[in-house]
Write a structure and sequence with these properties.
Structural class: alpha/beta
Number of helices: 8
CATH architecture: Alpha-Beta Complex
Number of strands: 5
Helix content: 40-55%
Radius of gyration: 17 Å
Order of helices and strands: HEEHEHEHEHHHH
Shape: globular
Distance between the termini: 55 Å
Length: about 180
């Protein structure tokens, strides 16, 4: 009986993970960076449970404005909710530093980062991976441009942030 239970769990687990991944992919521009980090556009309230079921422990929202409904729902599900109000027309180094502080606080946990369409979120994740995790820039660029090609204002923000963290060759275009 014990062998059957173990075998059943072994067979079901990969299927459940594939099903979870398929369900998460329904969130706008959902992108796994790795098993512990993902970014996306704004999830629907019912999709927040999918994040919890996958094992995400923290939600970082980069959309300005009052986000009380999402905050309540996320907290009811047992995840933490943080908001960094990133103005679409004026992202700042201070916004990114707040993001870095949260990511460092949650570095051993599963983190989900989102904004409206995953443009802000994917950019912040890209910058975090380059400036803090020191990962290969080619891979980070590939993940970013799979979501969007930063327009001029956002490319300037990327350049300024990378310059601040003393990382040369900051243009997305030069890494492609």
């Amino acid at each position: 009986m014990f062998r059957i239970l173990i075998l059943t769990l072994f067979l079901i687990t990969p299927f459940a993970s594939a099903k979870q991944t398929e369900q998460l992919a329904q969130i706008t521009n959902f992108h796994f960076v790795n098993d512990d980090l993902a970014s996306a556009g704004l999830p629907k309230p019912e999709q927040l449970k999918l994040l919890k079921d996958y094992g995400f422990q923290h939600v970082i929202n980069l959309i300005p404005g009052v986000q009380l409904k999402e905050k309540r729902k996320v907290q009811q599900l047992g995840m933490t909710f943080e908001q960094i109000k990133v103005d679409w027309h004026n992202p700042t180094l201070e916004n990114f530093k707040q993001f870095v502080a949260l990511m460092e606080q949650y570095k051993d946990d599963k983190v989900f980062v989102h904004c409206q369409l995953n443009w802000r979120a994917s950019t912040f994740v890209y910058l975090y991976r380059i400036t803090q995790l020191k990962i290969d820039k080619q891979q980070a660029v590939k993940d970013l441009v799979a979501i969007w090609q930063p327009e001029e204002r956002w490319q300037s923000f990327i350049d300024e942030t990378l310059k601040h963290y003393a990382r040369s060759d900051s243009s997305i275009r030069s890494a492609q």
